Design the sequence.
């Protein structure tokens, strides 16, 4: 069995956001798109926007860290980020990141276009005021990839182009409202000791198998760490670490590693035990979670 690649100790190369002001959505053009190719271990520094954002990887794997958690974004998923939420992007596997910017008007938050009225079941936009991972349907992906990605200083759309953009925007927003959420996020605490422990687990999740080993690294007792997890994150260390292990599994799957190999490297006694964890944590089996969507390779 080949050995797992050791974690990189080099700091990710920091990059600034790519001219977001040249893609700012407006009431006249409420949905804008851009695409950026990033190499593994590159990182877009923390930033925020006045508009909502949907980010997904056309291929590869990225992790987006926001104020309250860190979220995995494989090609079949997307992260919704409300206006004003600071976030950073780390590339785990070379990825083409597609970003959609959505204009938010009249105090509303969500994938609605100007003048569009929400159905009664959608009237409460509370869920859209939080970061959430969503499934990306084939239709959503196809429509998003057809949006014009040229910045304001390079393109002035004519009437036909604006009409096409409006039609695609209506499809994207309708698909977003239908997209089911997926549990692919890890909440992050405010306590400095617990934050340091969580970041260490994310960087190297298989280093210790028990809470005792991780607690020693931050100079706290296992009982204290367990209490902090309950108080700050409303979960146990074991449940939280399963999300981190799932993140590592997604990264290895993106490199073509088989499920049996991944299960062994993460310390599971059998592929079936690993599959049970994936079902419990993400709500779906590895065969579905790790599957690349149709057209992902063509997006490169």
Sequence:
């Amino acid at each position: 069995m080949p050995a797992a690649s050791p974690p990189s100790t080099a700091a990710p190369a920091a990059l600034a956001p790519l001219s977001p002001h040249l893609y700012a959505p407006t009431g006249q053009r409420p949905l804008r798109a851009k695409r950026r190719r990033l190499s593994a271990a590159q990182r877009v520094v923390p930033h925020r926007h006045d508009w909502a954002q949907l980010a997904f990887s056309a291929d590869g794997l990225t992790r987006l860290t926001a104020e309250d958690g860190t979220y995995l974004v494989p090609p079949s998923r997307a992260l919704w980020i409300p206006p004003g939420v600071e976030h950073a992007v780390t590339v785990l596997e070379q990825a083409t990141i597609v970003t959609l910017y959505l204009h938010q008007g009249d105090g509303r938050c969500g994938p609605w276009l100007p003048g569009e009225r929400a159905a009664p079941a959608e009237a409460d936009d509370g869920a859209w005021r939080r970061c959430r991972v969503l499934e990306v349907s084939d239709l959503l992906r196809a429509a998003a990839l057809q949006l014009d990605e040229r910045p304001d200083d390079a393109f002035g759309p004519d009437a036909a182009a604006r009409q096409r953009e409006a039609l695609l925007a209506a499809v994207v927003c309708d698909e977003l409202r239908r997209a089911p959420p997926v549990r692919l996020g890890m909440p992050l605490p405010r306590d400095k000791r617990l934050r340091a422990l969580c970041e260490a687990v994310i960087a190297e999740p298989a280093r210790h198998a028990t809470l005792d080993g991780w607690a020693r690294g931050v100079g706290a007792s296992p009982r204290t760490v367990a209490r902090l997890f309950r108080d700050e994150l409303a979960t146990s260390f074991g449940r939280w670490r399963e999300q981190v292990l799932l993140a590592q599994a997604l990264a290895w799957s993106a490199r073509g590693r088989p499920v049996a190999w991944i299960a062994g490297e993460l310390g599971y006694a059998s592929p079936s035990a690993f599959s049970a964890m994936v079902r419990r944590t993400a709500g779906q089996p590895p065969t579905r979670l790790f599957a690349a969507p149709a057209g992902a390779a063509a997006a490169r």
